[in-house]
Amino acid sequence: MAPADEDGRAATAGSAGARRLVIVLANYNQAAHLAASVERLQGTCSLLRLDTQLILVDDGSTDATWRESLALAARYPNVRLHRQPENLGRGAAVAAGIRMAETDLVGTIDTDLEVPPHYLLPLVERIEAGADLAIAHRRYPLPLGLSRAWELGRWIAHKGYRQLMRAALQTPIDTLSGCKVLRRERLIPVIDSIRDQRWFWDTELVVRARRAGLRVAEVDAFCPGKVKGSSTVDAVRETIAHIYWVAKLRRELDRAGYGALARRGPKRFLRVPR
């Protein structure tokens, strides 16, 4: 349980001298996980001395996600809500939350907390060290055994997409990671230029940020992996969509003269060693 204040109300992460951070959670049919994830996130941020505000964005859910969101806003004074008029896509939901933020430092994290939330602190530190965008580079253990075939499929897909990003877009970064921290003022122009508003949004954010000359950093994040059934992604449809958008973005960059993006100009890629 989250700690309580003198009036019995659940305490938030805010405290004197803490870093201020807005965290956006984009939700689509996450009623089964939302309350537990918010509680865990509140507790972790309190331990990390992060003065946080959580923005929960409901992306047109058809389950009880909005009802759960209302209950969480009533329980936690640092929770704000936004409800999309329909299912506009994960990228559109994250962008809406970022635009609502009233601080320059904004983080995003997947509601299932695939990346453990304590990695938010080193991401904030990367921003404080000079990065404009800091991303959790997901590191998964190799799942072995027939009982873990589903996880093995995700592991292979993750590795394959990373290779595609290197080959097609010269981007050696975990572009699909849902855990990141950014400087809102520097990234809003990039967000405004993104074309896909669904799952390719994260990849476009990274590629376009590097194209704009912004400084991008990664922090190694060791993840246990997703729980089967926690994802609302249609894997087949999104794989096809990603291939389409990768090809489309590559053509755009080639026409603009950015085909060798990673080799042009000063290096903008920082890495935190293991």
Describe this structure in words.
An eight-stranded mixed β-sheet has the order 3-2-1-4-6-5-7-8, sandwiched between helices. The protein has helices spanning 34-47, 65-75, 90-100, 120-128, 149-169, 184-193, 201-211, 235-256; strands at residues 19-27, 50-58, 79-83, 105-108, 133-139, 180-183, 216-222, 269-271. It is an alpha/beta fold. The chain has a single domain, classed as Spore Coat Polysaccharide Biosynthesis Protein SpsA, Chain A (Alpha-Beta Complex).
| Number of H/I helices | 8
Mean pLDDT across all amino acids:
84
Q: Number of DSSP strands?
A: 8
In total, how many domains does the architecture comprise?
A: 1
* Helical/strand content category: alpha/beta
* Biggest sheet descriptor: 8 strands, mixed
From the N-terminal CA to the C-terminal CA, the straight-line distance is 32 Å
CATH superfamily membership: Spore Coat Polysaccharide Biosynthesis Protein SpsA, Chain A
Low-confidence stretches: 1-14, 259-269
Q: Return the CATH class.
A: Alpha Beta
Could you give the order of the helices and strands? EHEHEHEHEHEHHEHE
Strand content: 15-25%
Categorize the overall geometry. Answer: globular
Order of adjacent strands in the largest pleated sheet: 3-2-1-4-6-5-7-8
Helix content: 25-40%
Kindly report the CATH topology: Spore Coat Polysaccharide Biosynthesis Protein SpsA, Chain A
